[in-house]
Amino acid sequence: QVELVESGGGVVQAGGSLSLSCASSGSTFSTTAMGWFRQAPGKERGFVATITWNGGVPHYADSVKGRFTISRDQLQNTVYLQMNSLKPEDTAVYFCAAKDRPWPSINVEDYAYWGQGTQVTVSS
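^ thats the sequence. predicted structure below, dont judge the formating
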């Protein structure tokens, strides 16, 4: 069983930055792909970013490319999402997710474990 705990959400003005963290309790963290997703009110949960088991080949949604950066620390069992140049449309609950395979995916249904989510609000 894997437990994921996100932190770092909050309220920020447009153009600002936030850094999200996701700590994993799983012993398989270093061998599995991780992802970030987000869900705005009234919308489906959507892909934001994903990273392979070893930190290589990150992949981003077009809407965040060039502004967000996903990374992971294998020793700390933690994955991060650095968010810069935030826009009001980035407002959502952000979820960390873990696959049970090494290779990343942009699909919600491919992830086996989910955190509880952290709210990010960007004011205009």
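The chain has no helices and eleven strands.
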